[in-house]
Amino acid sequence: MRSILPQVIAGGLLAQSAAAFWLLPEARNFIYIVPDGYGQASQTMARDYVSLLRNGENPKAPVSIQLAADTMVIGNVRTQASDNLITDSAASATAFGCGVKTYNNAIAVDDDGSPVGSILEAAKLKGFKTGLVVTSTINHATPACYAAHVKDRNSYAKIAEHEIGYSHPLGPVVDILLGGGRCYFKPRSDPTSCRNDDVDLFGFAKTKGFRVMQDRAAFDELNKGTSKAADLPYIGLFNDDQMMYEIDRSRQPEQEPSLLEMVETALNSLDRATKWSLKGYFLMIEASRIDHAGHANDPAAHLHDTIMYNDVMGFVRQWIDKHPDTLMMSAADHECGGLTLNGFNPLPLKDVSMSIEQIGRLWSSYNGTDRKGYLTETILPGYGLKGLSNAEVDSILKNNNLGGDLTRLLSKKAGVNWSTGGHTASDVTLYGYGNGWRGSNLKSDMAGNHDNTELPKYIEGVLKVELDDATWELRRKGVDWVGKRDVTGPDHIHSH
Fold it and tell me: Which residue of 2, 101, 242, 322 sits 20 to 30 Å from the alpha carbon of 490, by its own alpha carbon?
C-alpha cells in the first residue's frame, strides 16, 4: 500500500488510504536539484555523446550506456504557469519551491502579489539548515524563489537583499549561498557594483556572521567543506555575472569552482553543522546554465553543462548511500530551445573548446587589423568549425551575426536542431533517489505524472515542516516589504 501526505490529498498527489501514513519516507535531509532548461533530448544528447566516446566513436554501431540521471527516473512533471501554457523560471520555481501556481515573472508571490512561503523557509523555521548552490547569479529566478519575494524577477537588487536577510521579514534564512551575481552585493561606490544605492550586502552579511568569499582562492580554503572556514553560515559568489559555462570553466579551473565542487563542499558543511542535531538540512542545487545554452542554441555548452548535471546526480546518489537519512528529487523547471535530434551525430561537438558566449567575448575584445585571419585561425577552430570555405567565412563577416551564424553551423554539423530560442511547454522528467526503504517509498509515492506544485508538498511531508506556517510568518506584519518591479534593473531575457 502506498504512503500518503494528508496535506495534499485534495490536490490529488496521492489518493491512497490514510492508513498507509506510517510508510511515509521521513528523512532528516532533502536535496532538490534543478537542471534549468533541460529536456529529454538534452539527456539523450549527453548520453549518446559520452557513449560514443567510450565505445569506439562509431555512430553506425552505437553502444549505449546510462548516465547517472538515467538510473533514477520515477515520473514526469507538468510545468505551465497560471497565466501561460509556457512557464518561465520564476513561475515554475514558485510552483516547485512554494507549491503555488503564479504568473510568469513572479518570485514567490501568488497571483495577487502576496508572498508565499517556500519549502526552504519552512525548513528554516523548523530548525533545519539550508543552502542554495547554483551556477547562475544567486539572485536569478530559481534560487530567488526559495528566499525572496518580489512581484517581478527583474528586481535583482531587492532579491539579493532578501536572500541575505537584509530586508527579509524572517532575517537570513539561507546558511549557504554559492553561485554568481557578486555585483549585486556591493554598494554603488564599488566600480564593479550593479546596484543603484549604497547598500553593502557583503558588509551586512559579515555582521550576521557570514564568511564572505569572492574568488576561487577563498573557496579553496573551505577544503571541500571540512575545514573550520566552512562553518556556517557563508556566502561565496565567484563572478559578477553568471558563472562560466562548464566547457569554458573546465579549461580555466583556477577561475571558479565547478558545480560539483560547490555541491560537495555544501553537503560536507551541512552534514558537519547538523551531525548532532535532530534536524537536518534542505539544499537546492541548480545546474543553471543548461538553460542559457538552450536560449543561445549553443549545442556544445548545453552538452557539457548537462554532463555536469549528471556528474552531480551521480555524486548525490553516492552521498545518499553513505547518508541514508537523506532523500533527493530532481526535475527541470521547463525545457528550453525545443531541442530535437534528427540527423544526429554529436561527435563534431568533441572539437569544440569554448562556448558561444566565450566566442563573443573574444570577438568583441579583438582590436587587431586582420579580423578575417582571427576568425579563421582562432574563433572557428575554437568552436569546432575549422575548414569553412572562403565564401562561408566572408558570409559570416558580412552578416555581423557571429553568434547566430556559428551556432547554426555547429548545430547543423552535429544534427542538433532547435525550434526556438525560448522555453517550450513540454513536460519534464522527474528523478528521485533514496537508500533502502526510503527510496522504495519515494518511487512508489511519486511515480507517474505530477503538477509541479505537488513536489514541495511532498518534501513538506517528508521533513514534517509547514509551508502555511512560513506564509503566515511572511504576512504577519504586512506585505509592504515585498519587492516591486525595479524598472532600472536589467531584463532577464537573454541577449542571445
Answer: 101
